[in-house]
Amino acid sequence: MRETDTTTSAAGQDRALLPTATAAESLAALRTMLRGHRLLAVAALAVLVAGTAIGLLTAPLLGHIVDLVVDERGSQALTLPLVLLIVVAVARGAATAVGSSLVARLGETVLAALREQFIERALRLPLERVEAAGSGDLVSRVTSDVSMIAKSVRQALPEFSRSALTIVLTFGGLAVLDWRFLLAALLAMPVQVVSVRWYLRRSAPVYAEHRVATGALQHQLLDSVGGVRTVRAFRLNTTHAGLLEQRSAAARDIGLRGIHIVTGFFSRLNLAEFIGLSAMLGTGFVLVDNNAVSIGTATAAALYFHSLFNPINAALFLLDDAQSAGASFARLVGVSGLPAEQAPRERRPLDDGSVRVTGLGHAYATGDPVLHEVDVEVGSGERVALVGASGAGKTTLAKLIAGVHEPSAGSITLGGVDVKELGPAGVRGAVTLISQEVHVFAGPLAEDLRLARPEATDDDLRAALERVGALEWAQALPDGLATVVGEGGHRLTVTQAQHLALARLVLADPPIAILDEATADAGSAGARVLEEAASRALEGRTGLVVAHRLPQAATADRVIVLDRGRVVETGTHDELVAANGRYATLWAAWSDSRRDPQPAAPAPPRPASGDSGLPVTTAC
What we know:
The chain has helices spanning 23-34, 38-55, 58-70, 79-123, 127-133, 135-177, 179-186, 189-226, 228-233, 237-289, 295-307, 309-336, 394-402, 419-430, 445-450, 458-467, 471-475, 494-508, 523-537, 550-554, 573-579, 582-594, and strands spanning 3-8, 14-20, 355-362, 371-378, 383-387, 409-414, 417-418, 431-435, 443-444, 484-485, 512-516, 542-546, 558-563, 566-571. The protein contains 22 helices and 14 strands. Strand 13 (558-563) and strand 14 form a beta hairpin. It is 61% helix and 12% strand.
C-alpha cells in the first residue's frame, strides 16, 4: 500500500500529498522498465567486468617487479612487466570508458521512460486531486526529484557499478594469491556491515522526510510568489515571510541531520580501513617470515587491499545518493502508479449543448459547504452569466460543471447525459474551461494553437485567430505564426495570451464553454477587446461566463446571481434591474463606481485689496 504524506498549507489546513510508492512497488517498477533493455544491460555488465578484471592484473605485475628487484635480476628483466603495465592501463581505461558509457545510456533510457510515464499520468490526474495536494508537491517531483535521479544516473550509477565489480573481483584476486590474505581482508567487513546498517536505518527516513519538506517549501514559494499581489494587498507580507522562514528552516534542519549521519558513517568506515590494513600487513609479515609467500606476493596482496579503499568508500558513499535517488524514484513511481481514469464502456453522444444542474452541493476537504442545493438550467446555445460577490460560489460552480471537482451532492447533466456516464474524458471533450490563468507554452505560436486540435492546418489557425480578432497582431510577429513564444521566446501581452486561449477554444470547438474571469487581468481597454473576442468565440455554443465585469452580464442572454452558495436570482439583465434585488444592487454599485465625477465649482474671485485676505477653498 502506498504511503500518503500530509503537510500543512498556509491556511492551516492539511494537504493530502500525492502518494509515494513502497520499496516493493519501486523495485517492481524498475524491473518492468529494465525488461526491454536486457541486451544493453548484459553488454554493459560484460564490458565492465572485463575492464575490472584487466585492471586487477596491476597488483600482481607490481608484485612480480618487487620479486625481480629482490632477486637482483637486472633492469632488462623489468622491461616486459613495465610494458604489460602500460597495456593493462590502456585496456582498462578503454573498457571502463565503454562500460560506463553503456551503463549511463541504460540509466538515461530508463530515466526517460520514467519521466514520460510520470508526465503522461500527471497530466491525466484529476485536477481536484492535484489541488488537494498543492501544486508545489507535483512541481517538486517533476523538477527536484527528476534532477536527483538524473544526477544519480549520470554520476553515481556508473561509479557504483565499477566500484561493486572491483570489490567482488579484488576479493577473488586475494583468494587466488593466498586464502589467508582473504581472511585478513574480511576482518574489516563486520565493521563495514554494522556501519552500513547504522547508516541505512537512520538515513532512509531522513531523506524521505527531506523530500517532503522540500515539496512543502516549493509549494509555499509558489503560493507566496504567485500570489504576491494578494499578499501585499492584504498586508500578509510578514505572515508569508514567516511561513517561508519556517519551512526553509525545517528543510535546512532535516538536511543538517542528514549531514551529521553521513559524517558519523565515514568515521566508522575509517575505523574499518585501519583494522583491515593492519590485519593485511600483519598477515603478510607472518607469511613472508615463514617463507609461505614471496615479498612480491605480500606486496600484491597489500596493494589489492589498498585498492579497495576507494571502491568500498565510493560504493558506500554512493549509498547517500542512492537513498536520495530512491526516495525521489519512489515519489515518481507513486504518481506513475496511480490508476488511470476509468473510461465509460459506451460513451453516449451529447444530444445538444444544454447544461442541467440539480440539487448541487459542494464542500472542500475542510471548511463549510460552498454550494447549497443549486439548481441551474442552461439551454443549448444560450449564454449565461454567473454573477455574485467574491466567495459566492461562482468559480466553484464553474469548476464542477467543467469536471475539475466532483460534487458532494446533486447531479450534473451535459447534453442530456449524466457526467458519471460521460467520465472525465467525456466531460473534457464536452466542456472547455478558460480562466484568467492562461499558460503560453514554449515553442512556435502555430504549435501552441495546435494543442487544441493537432490536425489543424495553417488556414484553420488563421481562421480561429481572425474570429477572435487576433490575426492582425499574430501576423505582425517577427516570424508570423512560426514565431517562438513562451519561455525564452517572444513575450506576449496579457491580452494576447488570452486571445491565444480563445483561439484554442475555437479550434477545440466544444459544445459548451466556460469563461472564468478570462478578462480580469487585461485592464480596462484590454478587457473590452477580450469581451468582444470572447463573444465571438462563444458563437454557436453554450456559454457560461463568470462575470468579473458586470457589462459582460448585461450582454448575456440570462443572468444567474449567487449569494453565499445559493442561487438567489435569475433572469435577463433588464428583468433583474427592474426587480430591484441583489443584482440591481450590484449593478447600481458598479454604475456609481464608473460614473464621471461632477465638475469642480468655480473659485470665487480673489479678494480685492483691503479685504480680509483669508485663503479661498475650492470644493473638488
